[in-house]
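Continuing the batch. This is chain 6 of the set; chains 1 through 5 are on the previous pages. Same settings as before, nothing changed between runs. Recording input and output for traceability.
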Amino acid sequence: MKWYEELGLRGRLDALRTRDGQTIPYEHKRGRCHRDENKQPQAWESDRLQILAYAYLLESAHGITVKEGRIRYHADNVIVHVPLDEAGRLKVKEAIRQARTLRQSAYRPPVIDNERLCARCSLAPVCLPEEARLAHNQEWQPIRLFPEDDERQIIHILEPGTSVGKTGEQIKITRRNQPIETVPARQIGQLVLHSFSQISTQALHFCTDQGIGVHFISGGGRYLGSFDTRSGSIQRRIRQYAALSNPDACLELARKLVICRGQGQRKFLMRGTRGKAKTDNLDKAIAQMKAVLKQVPQAKSLESLLGFEGNLAALYFGALPDLISQEVSKELHFAGRNRRPPLDRFNAMLGFGYALLLKDVMNAILTVGLEPALGFYHQPRSQAAPLALDLLEIFRVPLVDMTVMASVNRGQWDTKADFEIRGKQVWLSEVGRRKFVELYECRKQESWKHPATGYSLTYRRLFELEVRLLEKEWSGEGGLFGQLILR
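Output for chain 6:
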């Protein structure tokens, strides 16, 4: 296709009409047109370039002559005629040349000075212009341009033997001895397949095309992996590789991460003392964690950070049982963290929750287009992706630890129906997993005011925002990552 090779363009017109034998492309705009000094209606420069590109593309693709394009501005109820002459064609070619140069560059262009141009830009959630301005000017009051929520469903397929397929523009879910369920693809954000549920090749291709994340979790509640559908994000990964190959940069980010998690753990323990009788164990752990956290900024290596983190985790999990109400069944108490396999009901819930959390963090990383296998704190390993494990630390306390503790103290668990005992091992039953998924997804719908940006988002959106703020750290606009600490 010669026209595609020459211009490298493709697009979808709002309308294409024929007048007196001439083919005319139309664009419809909801807003108002530009006015010159004589108050005559004119096209905005970006709109002019867009309609010229469509007209030139029609010429090249079909070998016809297109004399002009037209733009309808509905707020003014006017139509602006934009002639396609040789100057217009040259303008399109120059814009294409600049776009190709920009695409080949490993660096993103700086945020434009005129912030008004960013307010309705579809790329604002990608380049985060308001957050970039805040990174350079701490007095800046950012406007939230990042989407507040993703209202698409996250569908968990928990029953073994369930199959997921495609029918038309819908996802088809077939469960044993149940009616077939169909859900429009536009309403789905993620498909999470637990245990031995299945998905067809056609459905996988369809999910890729629709931007639906597909993730797999074992019957024992362990995160297995995600269907990686990244494309066109190589420049992001090149910048990531370059930045995270620098030991000093990795150490600085790791310090932020350890402080973020440690402060969150300590403040959660402090919350547990409100309105309750303090215990010596709890008071001692809170004081010791404060002392350890003071040493973290002076850590000279990742190895020493691991030591600090280990101390913080031991103090935290040693004191966490003190937050469990005395009215809770002894079967739901625990004496410390254990896993692989979990040996009590509390740890079974924590493990399953961390698997769901890892899935959501991985979904955000893949959505942004970073490389999950290259982190800055956790080292390369054969199973879980290091970058996902890094970002997991930020959300452990608010999304999993707090959810588990609250549900236990509220008496929401049936110690028999919600768990399966296999020798010394304890696992959530299918009923228990379903209950936990509901609690976890409800928690993600709650909003949190971001301490650095000053605006509120649901936890669902905070995953992606935090990944993009991490990318800012090696793009010259750092200082906002790792600030999600409980008050």
